């Protein structure tokens, strides 16, 4: 059976033994069209040959894509049964051009993957929009798949600060006004903001030292952006020090780091993250610093200091998400966020710093004269700490539920439980079927 012909967005490979050529095709197609499809088990003419495919085959291709292509992408890999033959279908997309495969920059011309000239590469970098096209793509979700409480809270905030003119709450009108719905379907950006089962990741961690070695607390949360912003801010404010000043009429409690500055950087991380790869915003509380990680690259030629000193306009990666957060006064669109952070920190004599990395941006508030007294039951690995937190929050949680929540196998969860038990951190009371966990 012939399933089609190769094109500028479709590539055929006889077997997964042609991994190197397949990776080159993926990166070349991404650089030309930002999306495409590759089939293993189909010859150049489009005739289905089939091949043996196991779970390890899929993992092998997933690892090859992860290791070979930069910036990283998250493909969809599935097995198709066509007239008794198994075919491996790889669907991929990405808007973070240019993409390199093992250090080479290729581009698709017809069905050929050729190396880009220096001028072509320069032109692609210069003309590719910094903004994300992912957030405008439609999902399969409808109005019923959104978090009603988050939407109502947003409506009240936006109306209250004068950035939304709507006398009465009308869900459909609201979604149309903020441009997150099209023909009854929610856009990616809208679902990331308000989805009931959105899977935006937030990692919250406290450490005993300034090295990421020993956790005193570790949580992984998934949800929508609108709720996660508050979760992140609450976590930081509950893990920093406060002092009291007696005013003329009442006592004022003042955090060691200005709350407005913390909120600005947290919102900035969510507003400018690269969402096409299921990112994880991270917040780390250390004795000497508070670190906020944004999984979105900073404009190469700029730093926060440029936005402070030169009054530069904002670079809008996620225009839709940024606009919604602006309406509820969570961010300013004018590019003045770093100026406000700097001014708040200057008033309170708080220093800050930053660092840019290949796949993200770190902002750090420097803490001074902070003494942390922590009691640690045992030095736990990251996965052990996550399992411990789940058990601490729900003593009746099952191994299967922990596996789903953490994205691990039940065998891995069992290893973590055995390790925690040996370290005398937890114990099982009663039977596996009707018992419960006890935290020591």
Structure description:
The protein is an alpha+beta fold. The chain folds into four domains: about 10-130, Schlafen, AAA domain (Methyltransferase, Cobalt-precorrin-4 Transmethylase, Domain 2, 2-Layer Sandwich), CATH 3.30.950; about 145-195, no CATH class; about 200-320 and about 325-365, Heat Shock Protein 90, CATH 3.30.565; about 380-440, Winged helix-like DNA-binding domain superfamily/Winged helix DNA-binding domain (Arc Repressor Mutant, subunit A). The protein is built from 14 helices and 20 strands. The chain has helices spanning about 20-35, 55-70, 120-125, 150-160, 170-175, 190-195, 225-240, 260-270, 305-310, 320-325, 335-350, 380-395, 400-405, 410-420; strands spanning about 10-15, 35-40, 70, 75-80, 85-95, 100, 105-110, 110-115, 180, 185, 200-205, 215-225, 240-245, 250-255, 280-285, 290-295, 350-355, 360-365, 425-430, 435-440. The chain has a six-stranded mixed sheet. A four-stranded mixed sheet has the order 1-2-5-4, covered by helices on one side. Strands 3-6-7-8 form a four-stranded antiparallel sheet. Helix 8 packs antiparallel against helix 11 (about 335-350) and helix 12 (about 380-395) packs across helix 14. The model is unreliable at about 370-380 (pLDDT under 50).
